[in-house]
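If I may wish for something, please walk me through the protein I am sending here so I can picture the backbone:
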Amino acid sequence: MANDRPNLTGLKSAGAPVISRPSKCDAMATIAAASAEMTPASASQDSWVQAKRNGRLMIALSCKLTSMRTKMLMLRIGRLEGCSAGRFYPIQAKGNFPLTACAEQRKLALKRPHASYVLGTMDTPDTSGRAAGFPGVGALKIRVWRLSDTCLPLRGPASKGDLRDFGFLSTIPGMSTLDPKRTVTELQELRALTTDGSTGGAMRVAWTDTWLRARDWLRETASGLPLEVHNDQAGNTWFTLRGKSEKELLIGGHMDSVPSGGWLDGCLNVLAGLEVLRRINDQYHGQPPVTVRLVDWADEEGARFGRSLLGSSACGGVNFVPDVERVRTDKDGIRLDDALRRCGVNIDEMRASHAEIKNAAAYLELHIEQGPVLESMDLPLGAVLGTFGVERHAIKFTGQAAHSGSTPMDKRRDALAAAAKLALEIRPIAHKYGGVCTMGSVVTKPGIVTAVVGECDATLDQRALSASKLARMYKAAQKASNVFAKEEKCAVSWSRIWNIEPILFNKDLIKMCYDSCVEVSGQPAHKLPSGPLHDAAEVSRAGVPTVMMFVQSLHGISHNPIEDTKIAHIEMSVRALDRLADKTIAWILK
């Protein structure tokens, strides 16, 4: 038998890289799976990708989409005649073998076994049945066998003694080496490393020792890949896999958290992106068609100095003024520029980081939703339309402090009464214009139980995806405050704290994101805006085509130790991001 083994070396697939089984085995092989996206529109078509080799026998995998959730898998056995190096020849088919999934045995069984030389058995380690583009089957590994000549033609199921094992193939294009379970494990490892034992919350606040330790851990975790790693002038960390093209696909997130925050906010983006980088590196043997870069943005949360999106704003180059930022202080009186200097960042040089995105062709960001919408719809994934614009103001109502016992109700100039009316009125204003309004802080003076409130300082945060609706919300709230101040015999004044215009994401990328969510989950997705701010907004503002993907948040809670997402949904989101990355690479190459 040893001298009669089929030569399986040099297998190639049109449009797919050569993949070989482990070198310890004595044969080289590949199987190419359908690389085209499978959609309901193509349900009536067989999708064959033929593996071609310089030898006598071949094996190819076929899939036929019979419904949104079910595909018929087949092994096609055939001969190649007169092959020579570097040339492809059509298959002379010898037989098709329909296969069905056997979840209990975690393999695929032959239903019509007969006639040929090489066959494959398949392991399905992903029992969720939605990995790698094969809904209903899962992530597959192929084990190649050779039938002994003595058992041919095969009249029934082959026995173990009839087969010679050639080992598992290392990977299969279209059924990738992506391992979402590894992402979950790494998230749990990071959680253990950076959690406050007393609160159970994450403590990766930017520019602190815990944050620096988390970033060192990230570098170590990525060290097995052939990546160029460096920090830019704004303190953002870049992991670069050089490709054949200088055009760049960026995948981003942030390792920093709010004090006593959740275990997923920001870091899910980074570690899911790292797993996608691993898969792309494996598939393209270290040189993808385009350059792929993972970025850990510095200080997305702004938890310590009150300045969100610091690193991405500096890199975007649109919304960052050093002299405005440097004088910010934390609760201990430490200045922002001093905290940055301690971490190797010069605030006056941060805008030079804009050079990092000069070749950026697209930017992708996965994030937990941080809200209740997807959970209320019982959907795991969503495509993000854009980020809300924000109008944030301080409002001061001024009345007259007076004794609470001696001042009749109709004689009072109660500043809190005016603010309370506004706090209720902003609700119908938000509903009318499709946005959100929040009075998150109210401080009264003199602030004692025996005095009518003379001064009331409040904050109002208003957000909407439409710039015109946001402007109308602001004007409506301002008008209402004047009415209520007059009713309560008070004065009112407004001062702007901060504002940012709405950011709409790229329409092509939104569609690809939505399609990726549907294809991986096997169910509808949802298109929704993002109320929270994200680094993606600053990248989009800088002119880079951008999209975000949301994964469901349990109970809609974030920035809290109880922040959580189902493990199955986390793994699904990694696969969906990976699918989106593939689509985006193809879109960039167009």
